[in-house]
From TrEMBL:
Family statement drawn from the similarity comment of this UniProt entry: Belongs to the HypE family.
Name the UniProt record assigns to this protein: Hydrogenase maturation factor
Pfam families linked to this entry: AIRS, AIRS_C
Source organism of this protein record: Candidatus Scatomonas pullistercoris
Residues in PurM-like C-terminal domain copies: 153-302
Sections of the chain in a coiled coil: none
Classification via Gene3D superfamilies: PurM-like C-terminal domain (3.90.650.10), PurM-like, N-terminal domain (3.30.1330.10)
Superkingdom field: Bacteria
PurM-like N-terminal domain span: 34-140
Amino acid sequence: MKIGKLPEPVLIRSILKQVGHRRKEVLAGPSVGVDCAALEVEPGEVLVMSADPITGTVKDLGSHCIHITANDLAASGAEPLGVMLTVLLPENVEEPEIRQMMRQAEDTCRELKMEILGGHTEITRVVTQPLISVTGVGKIRKEELLNPSGIRPGMDLVVSKWIGLEATSILVKEREERLKERFSPEFIRTARSFDQYLSVVPDARAAKAAGAAAMHDITEGGVFGAFWEMASAGNVGLEIDLRAVPIRQETVEICEFFGVNPYQIMSSGSMMIAAEDGQAVVRALRDAGIPGTVVGRTTEGRARILRNGEEIRYLDKPQPDELYRALEG
């Protein structure tokens, strides 16, 4: 199989259909387009959990893994509390690298008011580079839990900040020498700074207060993958104006350099939000100092339409994330 997420038919057939539901405490379990589980541990009190392996980068791995997991929790409307870390390391790792990784994770947790709750650390021949698998825990009141079941036809879709932030930051750090052949030091410094935008916890807080019905962190597969997953999870169609999808020029040029599609590349740092009043969400984001853009609407039926001026096409099923191809190239 290709590197990246399992193809949706395989995910449904060989993963999701093998899993049963038997506990009344479980309010949300595994499903396409749903990144978090929810368990009602006391009447009205819900724990939200997520799991992520961080495989796209080695540089700043400790910080990256915390942001990705906190973003998933925030997309459900929950307050991120903490993480459990499973750290798998190759034989050639040195202790200063381990210490730096954990300092990065702790600094990011401090910034987000989270805690590292525990985990497991191991040297193993199974991996050739450091791998962190993160289990995140958050909390929320039951009546405030956001779920794709809240999506209905006729809702606005809002994208916060810009797509491709995560991939741009990773490519600059992992392939800086190649990029120096084309781009100026100032351009590279600007693109490298995109990791300051990776958290969508503030985005989620502002959107929730403005009446968001559902949110989805735009991660692997890029904005095209997020459109597909949100439509599948909400059982709706979409009509998207591609020209409205916000993207930084640095991302456009770096994706062109590597010959990859910026709409299909990792985009943590950007949240997709479904709401009855998208402009209210945009205003709330703006008041929090966060750019936001209405990019389309949900529709009746299953059609997923992309408009680019007069050109109309239909959204394809999610493809392997373009970041892997850029790194391999």
